[in-house]
Design goal:
Blueprint lengths: L11 E4 L5 H9 L4 E4 L6 H8 L4 E4 L7 H5 L6 E4 L9 H6 L4 E2 L6 H16 L2 H9 L17 E5 L3 H12 L3 E5 L11 E2 L3 H7 L2 E4 L13 H6 L5 E4 L8 H9 L5 E4 L23 E3 L8 H21 L20 E8 L4 H11 L4 E8 L3 E8 L3 H12 L4 E7 L1
Parallel strand pairs: 1-2, 1-3, 3-4, 4-5, 6-7, 6-9, 7-8, 9-10, 10-11, 11-12
Antiparallel strand pairs: 13-15, 13-16, 14-15
Bound molecules: 1,4-dihydronicotinamide adenine dinucleotide (NAI) and 2-oxoglutaric acid (AKG).
The site of 2-oxoglutaric acid has 8 residues, from loops.
Length: about 400
């Protein structure tokens, strides 16, 4: 087996939050055997202890990799988010430490879109209330307040991967789709851009949110926006809990201004399946509550496990950072006949010439060199035909260049 900077069986992989077993299989098939698998996220003190020994960590949306937590990750080379959202990771802090972060940008897109469509139909038919009533032994067969979705206006806030996929499914049911996004987007089918968020809220029968968690989307749906929605409209949130002011939503539902809501994500979510869920929406018959399962289908989780684990393996074995969310992207060829040195540094003037001077001084011929930079960091990959001992020595010399964040060698 080809050696990496140290044997694959010495690379410690910490997998949290019950990521799919397909991830474990992917690591195992690639020769990684030290896999510490946990069904739940860890309390912060335990996380800090375990991350200190890990070379690779895999998380989902619960685990907060703050700058403080990452500061304990002295050996960490890469982070895998086994999901779409990466807001749970301090991406800038990870980058400053020379740690690329990977995710699975599309693997659960369809699962979320299907759930949203199902919820739109259920809410428009007032099924949550009817279901709750039947469970209590009640029976009120009536069409009052129940509508088809055909011909209704679906307002999509955040017309990205999930938003567009939801729009396509909605149109196949005969819905009219309008959307609002901060970027200019390619419009699919007969969807139309709304004039702005207020315009969308005023026109939509169903509003569904598909924005990421950012400073801008924090409480973007508050009391004022809820009041701007049509009376009797419904709201679906399967994006992030921080996007909606949950108390304002509870008030809009209690007052009857909104006819219903489906909420999958919450400002505070339980750490794991044994912890209690608390929300002002509990007990409201017209609200569908789900435990952040928008992307939780076996198909999606299986695919995510394979996709993210494969990206982590590829980075660990080969140095490729393709599709990293916080890092210069380099898609690298194999290096069957040379040893590969990786150098991550602050992007300051003169860095490349200092690196090249080192190889010239040591009289080492460079077989191949790749450089990718962004505004703050640079990533240089250098293939050389040297002995293992010299490659190690070069790695130490590279690490000593001022401004270096990380240096690794792949044999
Ligand atoms: N409930 C669940 O299990 C899941 C939730 N998600 C959440 O859904 C979010 C969206 O996922 P994707 O569609 O894949 O992301 P995406 O990045 O493809 O789309 C997000 C869209 O939101 C737009 N946007 C950003 N800020 C905005 C703002 N202030 N106002 C209007 N539009 C804004 C962006 O321009 C982009 O078009 C993820 O960030 C994640 O937080 C994703 C997967 C599963
Ligand atoms: O399934 C998960 O743990 C998180 C899903 C999600 O919210 C995401 O993919 O961003």
């Amino acid at each position: 087996m080809k050696k990496t900077s140290f044997p694959r069986q010495d690379i410690r992989v910490l997998l949290l939050e019950g990521v799919s077993r397909s991830a474990v299989e992917t690591f195992t098939a690639a020769g990684y055997s030290q896999i510490d698998f946990h069904e739940k996220s860890l309390p912060e003190d335990e996380l800090k202890r375990r991350i200190a020994d890990a070379h690779v960590i895999g998380i989902r949306s619960r685990t907060q990799l703050t700058a403080d937590v990452l500061d304990h990750a002295k050996r960490l080379i890469a982070v895998g988010c086994f999901c779409i959202g990466t807001n749970q990771v301090d991406l800038a802090a990870a980058k400053a430490l020379g740690i690329p972060v990977f995710n699975a940008p599309y693997s659960n897109t369809r699962s979320v879109a299907e759930l949203v469509i199902a919820e739109a139909i259920l809410l428009m038919r007032r099924i949550p209330q009817k279901n709750a009533e039947c469970h209590r032994g009640g029976w009120s067969k009536s069409a009052a307040g129940s509508f088809e979705v055909r011909g209704k206006v679906l307002g999509i806030v955040g017309y990205g991967h999930i938003g567009t996929q939801t729009g396509v499914l909605a149109e196949s049911l005969g819905m009219q789709v309008i959307y609002h996004d901060i970027e200019t987007k390619l419009t699919l089918g007969n969807a139309r851009a709304a004039a702005g968020l207020d315009d969308l809220l005023a026109r939509a029968d169903i509003v569904t949110l598909h924005v990421p968690e950012t400073a801008q989307t924090q409480n973007m749906i508050g009391a004022q926006q809820l009041a701007a929605m049509k009376r009797g409209a419904v709201l679906i949130n399967a994006s992030r809990g921080t996007v909606v002011d949950i108390d304002a939503l509870a008030a809009a539902l209690h007052s009857g201004h909104l006819a219903g809501a489906a909420v999958d994500v919450f400002p505070v979510e339980p750490k794991g399946n044994d912890d209690a869920f608390v929300s002002p929406l509990i007990g409201m018959d017209n609200v569908i509550l789900t435990p952040h399962v928008g992307g939780s289908t076996l198909e999606a989780q299986d695919n995510i496990g394979i996709e993210v684990a494969a990206k982590l393996v590829r980075y660990s074995d080969n140095g490729s950072t393709l599709s990293a969310v916080n890092f210069p992207e380099a898609s690298l060829p194999g290096h069957p006949n040379s040893r590969r040195l990786l150098h991550i540094h602050r992007n300051v003037p003169g860095m490349l010439s200092r690196i090249n001077e080192l190889f010239s001084r040591e009289n080492v011929n460079i077989d191949g060199q790749f450089l990718q930079t962004d505004a703050t960091i640079g990533y240089v990959v250098i293939d050389v035909s040297t002995s293992e001992a010299q490659a190690l020595q070069l790695k130490e010399q590279l690490a000593a260049i001022p401004g270096t964040l990380r240096a690794r060698v792949l044999y």
